[in-house]
Amino acid sequence: MELDPNATSDLTAFFTKRFPAPEDRQALARAAHIAFREPELSDPDIAWGGLVTRAREQSALPRLARCAARKRPDDENLQGVAAVLSGRAWPPQRQSTSSSTWKQLGTLGVLVGVASVAWAASGPDKASIATTGSSVESASIAIEEPAALSTTSPQTVLPSDAGTPSVEPASTAPTAAASSAAEQGSDRPSGAALESTPASTALPSDPTPDPVGSDLAGAGSAERIAPATAPEEQVFIGCSGEPGELVGYWYAGRESPGSKGDLIKVPRDLNVRADYPDRHNNYDRRAKINCTLGVGQNLVLTADPIRVPGDAYWVPLHATRRR
Are both 83 and 169 inside the same structural domain? Predict the structure, then answer.
């Protein structure tokens, strides 16, 4: 696929955010059989720019993306870029009567461009675009590795209304499908020796598998405190409704953040979805995103968290005032 200079620049930044270390670039270059020499300058953007250029010159850019995707099978954006560069449709088409109308270059621009904007705004290490059918919810960015929520004292001042992008753990099922798609085909050029690669993450047998574990796993759970005495008015970025109206549900991880009335600090940007995964919706974790919660916001839990199969918690969010 021919990339214009803007797409090449975005793709360079895309890889730099995920693999900034020199050893990561060298390992990926070896795995993709790309002749590449690490530059003397330590700037990862410059180094990745050189690697992407060498990959294009050697017609190995799809192979490089597939090798990177196998390193991070939980990264939906990375799976999407690998699929598009390899000529496959993204998101993967499920049982549907409608034909795919995605254009490869346009899809790549969405996957890479939107993620770059999200990083510029919030700086998370792993962003993932929520996809539904053949469309991209470009306003919502998801995260695969939620940290345990931390509590704060009721006297903490509420944050301002500055907008932040939404983040939340990505659905395991679509990720597994994308990872499987990235595994298809050989990543070695003709005549090159076979090289072992990490196996993709397998899905548990549970109908609602837990999100894949991350390097944040094992962090302490939120300390449950007495019912909060903070001001009743809470302002959530992008959320609105009549007082008491159900806004949606956000993913808290494997540890309950507390109980109704507890005051917590939002540890990272979170998507607030219209529904939580359970039997009533066939465990769908990709429900419509209604609004977002920004990192650092103080939040009084308006209802007890809901425990779903797989030992994961989703927390209802109710409006406390109309914006």
Answer: no
Residue 143 pLDDT greater than 60, yes or no? no
Based on the fold, state whether residues 164 and 309 are members of the same structural domain.
yes
Same domain, 170 and 286: yes
Which pLDDT score is estimated for 27?
A: 92
Domain interval for residue 29: 5-93+100-132
pLDDT in tens, 270-317: 889 999 998 888 888 888 988 888 888 888 999 999 998 878 899 999
Respond yes or no on whether the N-terminal peptide bond of residue 91 is cis (omega within 30° of 0): yes
Kindly report the number of other CB atoms within 10 A of residue 35's CB atom.
10
pTM: 0.34
